[in-house]
Amino acid sequence: MEIKIIEERTNPLLKRHELRFEVAHATAATPARDAVRTELAKAVHAPKDRVIIERMNPRFGTAVTRGEANVYDSADAAKAITREHILVRNGLKEKEAKAAAPAATPTPPAEVPKAEAPAAPAAEAATPAPGPTPPAAKPHAEHGAHPKDAGAEAPAADEAPKKGKAHPKKE
Predict the structure, then answer these.
(1) What domains appear along the chain, each with residue ranges and CATH number?
(2) Engineered SS bond to 139: which of 5, 145, 148, 150, CB 3.0-4.6 Å?
(3) pTM of the model as a whole
(4) Distance CA 82, CA 23 (A)
(5) 19: exposed, middle or buried (C-beta count within 10 Å: 0-12, 13-18, 19+)?
């Protein structure tokens, strides 16, 4: 693995040096982020905990990976400025468990006593509401009972299925 620094800029406001680099890895797969951090730390003469790789992009069809890294003046500045997921990728911080994980097993709410409705006389409850009742669904004559009508009653014995054309428009 051979590292070449393409560009280096100093950023005094954020207390860091910003690097663009290229890694040639002719005989191996794309190197791990940790191995590249170690080699970059050697190349810029800085401790590994102050080197943070922002991104690494392997070039399709070649054994070259390009990337961007930041070398901070102190480890505290690195941890204060760098985004959380980048710190996790570089191994400087542990990934936090989601807060929703403990809430996955909620405790049942305390039972609230329900208000009791006044008891209706049995005679009133048995009689249906006044008004016309809808006709019961009948099964199709040619195909038997429709799946939606599975709970419907069978037709009366005196009702014969209608004969004739099922679809009057088709002739």
Answers:
(1) 2-89 (3.30.70.330)
(2) 145
(3) 0.54
(4) 23
(5) buried
